[in-house]
Fold this protein.
Amino acid sequence: MAARVGRAQQRDHGRRDGRNREGALEHGDAVLEPLELDGDPAEALERLIATSWQLIHQSRSLLVAAQAELSSARIRDLHAGPAARAERLPARGQSEGVFRSDLPTSWLVATLHNVLHGAGDEINAGRLKPEDAARTVSLTILAAFAAR
């Protein structure tokens, strides 16, 4: 009997953890939603990077756990709002001639996503200080996005 209760509690705890991880991802969307992305696309991109980096750095362990427990489709669904914002900004920058237009917008967004998450990996490896990450990501992305 005790073993069955223990397993039931573990299942319930696992479901609750999954909901907590989903909640953390939804919280990130709520933080990014009011972010002002009008005006100069490069400056707006720097604001997006600074805010996104804070969220990624604060919730990195939750993201790793979520990737282990949630389906990739569910994680994509939870990232839909931030992804749409991330797509609109480079597209606008491209149309205004601020960002390069020789690469697809989706590639620029993928580059941003991977550099942001790569910064976390570099911190974990001891090769980047957390306080330098937002600036490092911004400089890297602005150089990669710059109109040619």
Q: What stands out?
A: The helical segments are 2-32, 41-58, 60-69, 72-78, 80-95, 105-124, 130-145.
